[in-house]
Amino acid sequence: MAGFPQTPYFIGLNEPVGQEVAFTGLEVEGTIPAEIRGSFYRAVPDPAFPPKFADDHTLSGDGMVSRLSINADGSVDFAMKFVETARHKAEKALGRARFGKYRNPYTDDAEVQGVDRTVANTTPVWHAGKLLMAKEDGLPYRVDPRTLDTIGSYNFGGALKSETMTAHVRVDPVTGEMFFYGYEADGLASTKVAYCVVGADGQLKSEQWFDAPYCAMMHDFTISENYALFPIYPTTADLDRLKAGGEHWHHQPDLNSWLGVMPRYGDVSEIKWFKGPKGVFCYHMMNAWEDADGLLHFDQCLSNTNAFAFIREPSGIQMQPWEIQGGLTRWTVDPRGPAGDVAESVIGPPGDFPVIPAAKQGRPYATGFMLTMNPDRQGPPVFGGPVLAMFDMLVRLDGMDTAQPQITQALPMQPGWCYNEPLHVPSASHEGWLITFVDHQTGENTFEHFAWVLEAGAIAKGPVASIRIPTRLRPQVHGWWVSQAQLDAAE
């Protein structure tokens, strides 16, 4: 699109699309299993206008929600719309960007000071019959799950007092409750965190506030059957830096990480802070679970620094992508004993976007899936996404409830192909299915896009169905699968 900076965050697969679309009767190669009926919702950052500052990046983009609908007769539709946030409306009114640096309101135009500046671009959250588009810097926006029209900012009927809500909620598979938190709960660079529990009926049951060890980017968290876990990594905010027009986040490699653990129905005064290694960072966690001895295991995609160059470089950390080290890592603590150091072990490959069956959330689990890089790739990975390199191998790990999980299956991509985050769809007769959007670079700046359906127990066989998406797409951040039965029961 014209007028955008020709930086890595706005070219190639990252080129803004800025187009709302609706298609019916998509082309399908293969057969979509009859038990897969419902909608795959995607959250994509997609700026409607060139940014105010040329050094902006992917994650500042306006929220775009899309819906891949697999209908009762097996036909497939696709639609995509902007989330009509207050920020998006304010910029549409003048036809240009009015909000400045990523999560720094001190760099906004004067006339939009005080306007809700979240872009609602990270995760579509489904709970209690409602679809919310969430980003951790503000409140979510409710979206009509059928039309994708924006209903408005959502605060649980006025019950939520936190100014923010994470995009990474956890839903208990037994109780149906939703657990979430909001960091910087009372303003920029605050250490305040709000921990919240929402009933299966969608009503906010509790909201408790506590202080984190320091103001950190708390992108994700986990629950187990009996505990809530709050990981803290040293990507930090500073109010004076923001007021001076600087970046919201700097990474501080000399600071310790921490893992806060509390009974999930307890009081925040019961949090115990277990100390982790210095300088590490994780964006996404696979699961947390308790073993037969009462030990608590926390499985995360951990690296030795923040994966985003737009955070590392302003922090003075000059690293090439291949210098970033990490892997699927387990921290183990005894929640019944005194707080001490975490016990750490590497249990899987480097990578991200871990997924497990929803029924195993917070429970011992045998199997997990994640994206990684193909070690046998011939040529560079596809250029795109916020880390500027797309994943090109999907792996399945078994033995996740043991000390040494193993990769048992893998589906590497051919050169020029890459994955977006997969979602798990349950099955009545086997281990279920994975659905993932894939991108294929066909020329210097030409791409085609598909949604693949894979058998979770046999990913190495490749897709049982491939759905062609007849429009240009940007890389997604996260998605959510909603079954047709859930949609039919929604208000």
Automatic annotation (TrEMBL):
Residues the entry annotates as binding Fe cation: H168, H219, H284, H478
Record has Oxidoreductase as a keyword: yes
Keyword annotations of the record: Dioxygenase, Iron, Metal-binding, Oxidoreductase
Oxidoreductase recorded as keyword: yes
GO biological process: carotene catabolic process
EC number: 1.13.11.-
Span of the signal peptide: none
InterPro entries in UniProt: Carotenoid_Oase
Enzyme class: oxidoreductase
Pfam families given in the database record: RPE65 (PF03055)
Cofactor requirements of the protein: Fe(2+)
Cofactor note: Binds 1 Fe(2+) ion per subunit.
A GO MF label: metal ion binding
Protein family according to the UniProt entry: Belongs to the carotenoid oxygenase family.
Protein name: Dioxygenase
Species this chain originates from: Novosphingobium arvoryzae
